[in-house]
Amino acid sequence: MKPVRPKKALGQHFLKDLHIAERIADTLTSYKHLPVLEIGPGMGVLTRPLLDAGHDLAVVELDLESVAYLEENFPSLKGRILADDFLRLDLSALFPMPFCVIGNYPYNISSQIFFKVLEYRDLIPVCSGMLQKEVAERLAAGPGSRTYGILSVLLQAWYNVEYLFTVNEDVFDPPPKVKSAVIRAVRNNRTELGCNEALFKTVVKTAFNQRRKTLRNSMKPLLGKDCPDYHLPIFDKRPEQLSVEQFVELTLLTDSHLKTTSNHD
Fold first, then answer.
1. How many angstroms separate the CA atoms of 186 and 127, rounded?
2. CATH entry, 8-187, from 3.40.50.150, 3.40.640.10, 3.40.50.280, 3.40.50.2000
3. pLDDT band at 1 (very low <50, low <70, confident <90, very high)
4. Contacts of 191 by beta carbon, 8 Å cutoff, 6+ apart
5. What average pLDDT does range 63-78 have in this prediction?
6. Residues 61, 40 contacting (CB under 8 angstroms)
7. Which CATH architecture has domain 197-264?
8. Structure pTM?
9. In sequence order, which ranges of the chain are alpha helices (DSSP H)?
10. Which pLDDT does position 265 carry in this prediction?
11. 180-187 sheet: strands from edge to edge
């Protein structure tokens, strides 16, 4: 069967370097006891080393041309190729037990993929794969880094994220205009945030909406201009200086303030 034509609309850049595919597959070496879901396998360059390593593998692929190619070239995947959109899947219905996620992720939805993983964090102990270098840096950045942002905090609340290695453009067909990188996110020991999770997300997003300002200014949309807590040292900081734990502290302060003001209304 002839090779699949990469489709720009699907953000397809097919990896053609087998050595890099093997290195990505190796990120799950310690998790061979768990099923693996590969996102966007394309023509199966990462699928092959995953199968060779003995992983219990299923794949999800939106592109029907790729699905046909996989069905013909990977007979061992029969019944395990999901012709679907990963972002629309009910993962708990597919996997009643913990499983790993891996892929050479489409650049245009890589952030959404990690938000989806967060939704199912109690089922996904590890998620690894390749994405745009800038997004990978953002996911792995720590407090104080200029790339540390909303996605960093929300993901690192539940996962320890490692930036593993950088990948050049010339190993793809077609070559993307940017460099890529491989990361691995491993579930940490946190079982609860210790604050309202929906409010935590709102606080993080509000703080980073004006990331150059101190929290005393950037939090005004939530806390108003006369919040009595503004004298506290945390409000002297900028959002990129706060750890996950400090964002939890900020969420608890916000929660308390919102409850107090609603009681006065």
1. 7
2. 3.40.50.150
3. low
4. none
5. 95
6. yes
7. Orthogonal Bundle (1.10)
8. 0.92
9. 18-25, 47-52, 64-73, 91-94, 110-119, 133-140, 150-156, 197-209, 215-218, 220-223, 244-264
10. 53
11. 81-82, 57-60, 36-39, 100-104, 126-132, 180-187, 159-167
